[in-house]
Design brief:
single chain, 162 residues, alpha+beta, Alpha-Beta Plaits, 4-stranded antiparallel beta sheet, 35% helix, 30% strand, flat
């Protein structure tokens, strides 16, 4: 029993050390007792004007035609992007791009044989190359020329108005 009491006293000593904290006095804020009154000016801004300036700042009246081109072969993709850009340049459009997007790689693993030889496998992959072109403030002639454009097979085009 003597060993138990020694352990108990040691435990209480450590808790006393941990629980010691310093206390500080908080000061009350001083109150002015002067007879002079302070005047404050209130500025009121109408909320309608704020909202209209915010929407004008974001849009700026610019229409962007975003063209996203995808293909399995990069050479065919680059040729079709060049054809799109030449058509847009012919009608004096402002072009941003082409921006190369990350290549999407799909990998497939297939067993070479049907039953016993699981260690023998083949891996195949499909790469999808992507480019992004922005045409800023296109006119009607530019849009008409781009819709009548004939591109090679295997090229996928997504067009968005932003």
């Amino acid at each position: 029993m003597t060993t138990v009491s020694k352990k108990a006293t040691k435990a209480t000593k450590t808790t006393k050390k941990v629980t010691k904290t310093k206390t500080t006095k908080t000061k009350k804020p001083k109150v002015e007792t002067s007879s002079k009154k302070k005047t404050t000016k209130k500025v009121v801004v109408s909320s309608k004007k704020e909202k209209s300036t915010r929407t004008e700042g974001k849009g700026d009246g610019k229409v962007v035609l975003r063209i996203r081109v995808r293909a399995y072969e990069s050479k065919i993709l680059d040729a079709s992007v060049k054809q799109i850009m030449d058509t847009a340049m012919r009608y004096d459009a402002v072009i941003v791009g082409p921006v190369p997007l990350p290549t999407e790689i799909k990998k497939y693993t297939v067993n070479r044989s049907a039953f016993i030889y699981k260690d023998s496998r083949e891996q195949f992959e499909i790469r999808v190359h992507k480019r992004l072109i922005d045409i800023i403030n296109p006119n009607a002639k530019t849009i008409d020329a781009l819709t009548n454009l004939s591109l090679p097979s295997g090229v996928d085009i997504d067009v968005k108005m932003m």
